[in-house]
Amino acid sequence: MRIFLNFLLFQRNIIFTALPISIIIAALTAESSNFGFFYMLSSLLIHISVYSIKAPEELYFYLNNGITKLHLFLSTLFVSIFMILISQLLE
Amino acid sequence: MSKLQLDSVQKTYDGNKILNDVYLQCSTGEVVGLLGRNGSGKSTLLKIIFGTLDADSRFLKIDDRVFRESKIVSDIKYLPQDSFLIQSINVKNTIKLFLSRRCSRIVLDLPLIRPLLSERVGHLSLGQKRTLEVLLLLYSESRFLLLDEPFNGLSPTSREVISQLIQDRKKHKGIIITDHDYRNVISLSDRIMLMDHGNLREIHDPDHLAHYGYLT
User: Fold this and answer.
1) Which residue segment(s) compose the domain that A66 sits in?
2) Which end of chain A, N or C, is more open, meaning fewer C-beta atoms within 10 Å of its C-beta?
3) What residue ranges define each of the domains in chain B, with the CATH number in brackets?
4) Measuring CA to CA, how many Å separate B122 from each of A72, A77, B208?
5) Nearest 5°: CA angle at A19, between A47 and B89?
6) Which of B83, B97, B101 shows the shortest C-beta gap to A9?
7) Looking at residue B76, what is its pLDDT?
8) Does residue B193 contact residue B187 with C-beta atoms inside 8 Å?
9) pLDDT the model gives residue A15
10) Most B CBs within 10 Å: which of A10, A60, A65, as the mutation test of the B interface?
């Protein structure tokens, strides 16, 4: 449960930023069906910028809990795929 | 008693040998002080032990378990030079997310922490953050801790608090510590190692530090 909450914490910042960005892009481009794709792009960019450039030391919080960089990357990918599925369902 | 053994560590950067066949061991109940000039490879060595940096060669053993590849070992925790805490959550949640239920109960009850529980980590002073980080590691279930400059940028009062915490908990852990303030490291350590031109030497008498050019 604690490890799952760690993943949620990691994803929280990404979701809160990537979600509005992808909604705005989808609205501006009138491509609502591509919302999931926009989310994937923006979340991967945020993942890289926040945890590789802005606050790389925060990664050690997760690494010390046994969550590796690969696990974190996969979690971002997983949420992105979930968003793509949702956007496909809403189409 | 558990023992961490590191052997045959070699690391080269741009053709320069940073670590040359380094051997280091640490047992639970002892503090090993790692000294060396800036850029001598202390942090590199700690990251190699923790598993976040690949070495050209590395042999890590904890008791009978051998870890040949660079990977994070749950029995080792690492304190980086800068704060690793998540700034946007409060102290209570930080403790609950970092430690097991049993360990977090103990830390949540510490007089040092109780007044800070509802504070956001981002609002804590540097000394409070470092104290919290050191507490999280000291009360974790991992048997070995790598502390990379735990006293960096701290006031004398905060240094004293952290030194005391390490002294109090060291019987449960094997601790490898490095810091620019060599006096703190020497006073805390049971053994002193000096990183010198890629080699690790055991220093039996702090006066010998001058002999190897670490002190003038």
Assistant:
1) 2-90
2) N
3) 3-209 (3.40.50.300)
4) 22, 28, 42
5) 65
6) B97
7) 94
8) no
9) 92
10) A60
Query: Is the ipTM above a cut-off of 0.85?
Result: yes
- CB-CB neighbors (< 8 A) of A68 in chain B: 71-72
Q: Do A66 and B74 touch (CB under 8 A)?
A: yes
Neighbouring residues of B180: CB distance < 8 A, sequence distance ≥ 6: B38, B149, B152
Q: What is the DSSP string of chain A?
A: -HHHHHHHHHHHHHHHHHHHHHHHHHHHTT-GGGHHHHHHHHHHHHHHIIIIII-GGGHHHHHTTT--HHHHHHHHHHHHHHHHHHHHHH-
- For residue B101, report the phi and psi dihedrals to the nearest 5 degrees: -55, -40
Q: What is the pLDDT of residue B194?
A: 92
B84: chain A residues, CB-CB within 8 Å: 57-61, 64
End-to-end CA distance of chain B: 38
pLDDT, tens only, B75-134: 999 999 999 999 999 999 999 999 999 999 999 999 889 999 999 999 999 889 999 999
Q: Which amino acid is at B185?
A: V
Give the Cα separation of A23 and A10 in Å (integer). 21
Question: pLDDT tens digits for B57-70?
Answer: 888 999 988 887 77
What does residue B146 show for φ and ψ, rounded to 5 degrees? -115, 110
* Mean pLDDT on B136-163: 89
Q: What are phi and psi of B27, to 5 degrees?
A: -110, 155
Q: Do B86 and A68 touch (CB under 8 A)?
A: no
- Whether B212 has a pLDDT exceeding 80, the answer reads no
pTM, full prediction: 0.90
| DSSP-assigned beta bridge partners for residue B67 | B60
